[in-house]
């Protein structure tokens, strides 16, 4: 019997991609976040070439070739902007302002990459990733024609716009005015999508029992950065705003913490608010490596 090949470590995105654990897009975004340049990525891949090239190797090579100028631009931008997403904020208001400034600059540079670096600035890659999130929500019965949805940390509004034809209303909230300006343009065809600025401190402005779905796609890690009190206020506000049977869906709960700590938080929220924890830490997507949590208010 052949021994199982060793599982590549987390600091080897190329190995993880070749082993089928992450997509080529996510592998490239992880390398960019590790400050590897486009040329460095191409050289790294060349060292892993086999004869004939494996299909996953070829997919990575093709993507690098197709997005090469964008990879160079994004790698310079990642180095310039810095990445301190996992660092806790000392003051929640100042922390939210700092995060808003980061995203104001990011959206001016590349709207698609500002919400999903793994899109590599390509609208088609982002559309594929958005579609897999929508399909997953749909398969879980979370999209209904009569549903009212909060898109928490809506960014450029790619999810608000994608949800719009499927639900009754969408409210997109964000701390970044730059993101909201881009979202207003993208959601302009949908009068039942409302976009508003939030201080990022709580969800106190939401009416009680007014929503069927609170969706936080890759925004909760920034709320976590603002500290446990801000997290607790957001969870309590979301639960208060949900109708019976409604769901809080968090896709990526934190950055840089281990998955057991995230799952423990989700269990604690469920216990504190009488929610059913239906999904705790799955990675349901093929393109994006987002981790899913679904908490449902009993019907
Ligand atoms: C990585 S982007 C994701 C945007 C969008 N959910 C998507 O997936 O396309 C994170 C977004 O969360 C927003 N954000 C960060 N902290 C926030 C907070 N406390 N309240 C609301 N939005 C926040 C950022 O401004 C940014 O637009």
UniProtKB/TrEMBL annotation:
GO molecular function: methyltransferase activity
Domain (Methyltransferase) ranges: 149-246
UniProt keyword RNA-binding present: no
SUPFAM superfamilies: S-adenosyl-L-methionine-dependent methyltransferases (SSF53335)
Presence of the UniProt keyword Transmembrane in the record: no
UniProt cross-references to InterPro entries, sorted A to Z: Methyltransf_25, Methyltransf_Superfamily, SAM-dependent_MTases_sf
GO BP field: methylation
Keywords of the record: Methyltransferase, Transferase
Protein name stated in the entry: Class I SAM-dependent DNA methyltransferase
Organism: Muricoccus vinaceus
């Amino acid at each position: 019997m052949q021994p199982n090949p060793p599982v590549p470590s987390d600091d080897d995105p190329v190995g993880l991609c070749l082993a089928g654990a992450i997509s080529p897009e996510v592998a490239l975004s992880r390398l960019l976040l590790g400050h590897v340049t486009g040329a460095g990525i191409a050289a790294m891949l060349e060292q892993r070439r086999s004869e004939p090239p494996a299909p996953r190797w070829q997919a990575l090579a093709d993507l690098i070739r197709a997005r090469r100028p964008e990879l160079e631009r994004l790698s310079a931008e990642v180095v310039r902007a810095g990445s301190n997403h996992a660092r806790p904020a000392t003051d929640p208001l100042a922390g939210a302002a700092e995060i808003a400034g980061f995203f104001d600059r990011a959206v001016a540079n590349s709207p698609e990459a500002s919400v999903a670096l793994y899109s590599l600035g390509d609208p088609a890659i982002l559309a594929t990733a958005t579609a897999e999130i929508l399909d997953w929500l749909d398969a879980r019965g979370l999209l209904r024609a009569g549903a009212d949805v909060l898109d928490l940390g809506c960014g450029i509004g790619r999810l608000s716009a994608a949800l719009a034809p499927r639900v009754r209303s969408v409210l997109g909230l964000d701390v970044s005015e730059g993101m909201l300006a881009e979202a207003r343009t993208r959601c302009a065809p949908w009068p039942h999508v409302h976009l508003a600025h939030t201080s990022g401190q709580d969800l106190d402005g939401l009416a009680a029992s007014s929503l069927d779905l609170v969706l936080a796609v890759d925004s909760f890690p920034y709320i976590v950065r603002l500290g446990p009190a801000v997290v607790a206020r957001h969870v309590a506000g979301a639960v208060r705003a949900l109708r019976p049977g409604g769901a809080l869906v968090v896709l990526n709960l934190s950055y840089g913490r281990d998955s057991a700590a995230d799952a423990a938080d989700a269990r604690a929220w469920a216990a504190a608010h009488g929610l059913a924890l239906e999904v705790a830490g799955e990675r349901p997507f093929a393109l994006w490596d987002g981790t899913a949590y679904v908490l449902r208010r009993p019907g």
